[in-house]
Write a structure and sequence with these properties.
By secondary structure, the protein is mainly beta. It has two domains: 291 residues, no CATH class; 140 residues, Trefoil (Acidic Fibroblast Growth Factor, subunit A) (Trefoil). 9% of the residues lie in helices and 31% in strands. It has a six-stranded mixed β-sheet. The chain starts with a helix and ends with a strand.
């Protein structure tokens, strides 16, 4: 079976916002930096039904048997998840496995695996959507594959930030039940199969070719390519594997042949908890394993020190990225793929310091921070002129970067959309697209 270009795009772009499990070390030398070994920070179930989660993984690596993960054998078996090839051999791959296990296995269960160096890792279970995958194959279990796929999709965010979400689904381990107080806005629904490649005949969908990563927009946020689902999925990026099969901007509740569920009845809530069934593409396949995400309208983003990030002003539609190849810092063509356009973020006081991966001893520095001051690189010193408060523009999936010393915002000079425009600080204006930055994350180690 040949890996398709779509699958390559999927592996390279899919970012998973999962429960913060990470790979807890059992014994031996740790192959990762201590700060990269995350612990379980999932919130408890808010009610009998529905599930509160915290998200934050960036790269989804190797979910097909062609990439080291087999559906024919259980995860605990050598042929199901090998130690010497595939996702167990990289930091990014192990993080992906941590989230997959969290979705598949139940709370209280876990999977213990070693990497190619013999280092042992424990991956805790959590949601229990496919517990049988631990010891047995799921090659012919469409339900298992779809539930885990929907769970991973529900945790996707190409910005690679940790934010709270609320899951609703007919799966017993999640259940129906919205939290109107803490998660009042329906964000979107997720379904598909990212586990198998090729025709999905063995799981009852012969007219669908996997992997397929489907979503549709909820009614709680702006719809379409500028909506929050499209924003955090990166569905409007070139070559994106994510798609709304009903058409960009089509709300889930307006999709044909959907079967919604209402905890409080049609008269008791504006939008359904989620969907028991979505037919997509229309008339082609029926999907019964849908997970719907609810959100609040604000959050404090937490960035991950094990990712590298790029920043692109909304005004440039992703064609330009912040680059430190010149001084002052400017924007440059994203298509160039320059190492000087890639950054790491470190917690600094109540904010974040930004450093290029080419020189992590240097930080973005705004000097006195007067209006129109071009940003420079300077030796990191933890000062307020190097510290940035990062807040989300939730409706578009973009972020504002506000300087701690003056409260002014990072901006593209004059709103310029061409290469070479200087990155500066100016008085914050939430209506300016030149101050709204899309953040794209990727694992440092794939």
């Amino acid at each position: 079976m040949e890996i398709t270009g779509q699958w390559h795009a999927f592996v390279s772009q899919l970012a998973v916002l999962g429960v913060l499990t990470g790979a807890a070390l059992l014994g031996g030398a740790c192959a990762e930096r201590p700060e990269d070994v995350e612990t379980d920070r999932a919130e408890a179930t808010g009610t009998v039904n529905g599930l509160s989660q915290l998200n934050g993984l960036s790269q989804l690596n190797g979910l097909s048997q062609l990439n080291g993960l087999s559906q024919l054998n259980g995860l605990s078996q050598l042929n199901g998840l090998p130690s010497t090839s595939g996702p167990m051999t990289t930091e990014g791959g192990r993080k992906t496995i941590a989230y997959l296990v969290k979705c598949a296995l139940a709370a209280g269960d876990s999977l213990v695996k070693s990497d190619q160096n013999g280092t042992l890792y424990t991956f805790p279970g959590g949601i229990g959507l496919c517990p049988e995958w631990k010891d047995g194959g799921v090659a012919h279990s469409g339900g298992c594959q779809e539930r885990v796929s929907a769970c991973l999709m529900a945790h996707v965010n190409t910005a690679g930030v940790h934010i709270p979400i609320w899951l609703d689904a007919q799966a017993p381990s999640i259940g129906w039940g919205i939290d109107k107080v803490n998660y009042p806005f329906q964000e979107g629904s997720f379904f598909g199969n990212v586990i198998q490649t090729g025709p999905l005949s063995s799981v009852g969908k012969p007219n669908v070719v996997g992997p397929v990563a489907y979503y549709c927009d909820g009614a709680g946020f702006a719809a379409g390519v500028n909506g929050i689902v499209a924003g955090r999925l990166g569905a409007n990026q070139s070559g994106s594997p994510y798609s709304n099969p009903f058409g960009a901007g089509t709300l889930c509740k307006n999709a044909p042949a959907n079967v919604p569920h209402y905890t409080y009845g049609v008269g008791g809530q504006t939008d359904p908890d989620g969907y028991q069934t979505l037919v997509a593409p229309t008339g082609v396949a029926t999907w019964n394993n849908v997970i719907t995400v609810w959100r609040n309208n604000s959050y404090t983003p937490i960035f991950d020190t094990s990712y590298r990030y790029s920043f692109s002003a909304k005004s440039t539609a992703g064609k330009m990225v912040v680059d430190v190849g010149t001084s002052p810092i400017q924007q440059w063509n994203a298509s160039a793929g320059l190492s000087t356009s890639s950054f790491v973020m470190a917690a600094s006081g109540s904010g974040w310091a930004l450093s290029p991966v080419t020189n992590i001893a240097k930080c973005f520095d705004a000097g006195a921070g007067a209006n129109g001051t071009g940003l420079l690189l300077a030796s990191c010193n933890g000062s307020a002129q190097q510290r940035w408060a990062i807040t989300p523009d939730v409706q578009t999936g973009n972020f504002f970067l506000k300087l701690a010393s003056t409260g002014r915002c990072m901006s593209v000079r004059g709103g310029n959309t061409t290469a070479g425009a200087v990155i500066e600080v100016d008085d914050c204006n939430t209506s300016l697209a030149s101050q709204k930055f899309a953040v794209q994350a990727a694992s440092i180690s794939q």
